[in-house]
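Could you help me review a protein record that somebody else here produced? What it holds is a sequence and that sequence's fold in token form. I need someone to confirm that the token line plausibly describes how this chain folds. Take the sequence as given and treat only the tokens as open to question. This is what I was given:
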Amino acid sequence: MTHIVVIGAGQAGLSLVAKLRSTGFDGDITLIGAEDVPPYQRPPLSKAYLLGDMTEERLYLRPAAFYVDNNIDLRLDTSAVSIDSAAKTVALSDGSTLHYDKLALTTGSLPRTLPAAIGGMLDGVFGVRDLKDADAMAPAFTAGKKLLIIGGGYIGLEAAAVASKLGLQVTLVEMGDRILQRVAAPQTSDFFRDLHAAHGVDIREGVGLDRLLGDDHVTGARLTDGTEIDIDFAVVGVGIMPATALASSAGVTVDNGIVTNDHAQTSDPDIYAAGDCATLTFKGQTIRLESVGNAIDQAEIAAQNIGGGDVSYTPRPWFWSDQYDCKLQIAGLNIGYDAVHVRIGDKGQSHWYYNGDTLLAVDAMNDPRNYMVGKRLIEAGRSPTPAQITDPETDMKALLKP
């Protein structure tokens, strides 16, 4: 009987095995997970879960009975150590070896960490990547504590919003010129800088961390501008790296991620990859999409092709972030934009990215209707004029009509 092994029990891994079963695959499926809990949602870790608004059980993507009912061998607290692609075997951390007919890598990503030489290994220094990270830092999120957040991307900003809501004193440092510099336009950076300032967060841009201070537990930080601040703990949000070590051990092509074709297939025809760990081609460019939507969609394409299909993946990028009472929704990718046009609504606003006359992406802040309009326009390859976007009298839904 055909045996499919999936390494990585996150959103992509769960989506892949679920799709295999729902499309009629009746062979053996083994899902390998390094954590001791079943596949769960990661985005709420830095938001609702950290706030205490979501229990661990609600994080789980499927109940335990799902794996039993669907004859999925879910192996938790187990890591894949290496892959022998010639023998089609996977060596596991418990000393056992699995044979596979088809293999899928849904290994996700790893957080970048601070070097030990600048205090990265002190107690009270936390990352935000998995459930254990969130559980470890949660007790420190108590009113009056002084928190330093290192990194002004979405993870750092979401953690700042939670901390501010809980009454902490929050300082966030971003070594770049502005927060969200890597992923968003200045207009979006301005919006979120103002939002956090209104909630008392001290954002310092163009300032990095020189080193964390303390003997065993972090007690302070020296910044690159020479200032020192007292802190009770620190959260590090300085980006992620694709988890590609296993792919390299299997001999498949790796280039800032596990290289896949439009069938989610690697350079080895019997090995597939999906999610944060995988690169793909989007509009002629090789990229990685670090999002829940991509993890689900690419994994489901992989499942269909593993099961004997011939289905191509066309990415439809979308992302979101929750900060305070603001929901940011993003459609498309803003790579290569040369202009941003702002539409102000009654309750929110949206930022529309263009390259010449072509609409690339939309950032919508508390503006779900215009987000949906923008998403549908981008997917249809249609570009209204900037004048239409910025005119408050424009009927945005009418832009969708043929």
Q: What stands out?
A: The mean pLDDT is 96. The first strand starts at residue 3 and ends at 7. DSSP finds eleven helices and 26 strands in the chain. The radius of gyration is 22 Å.
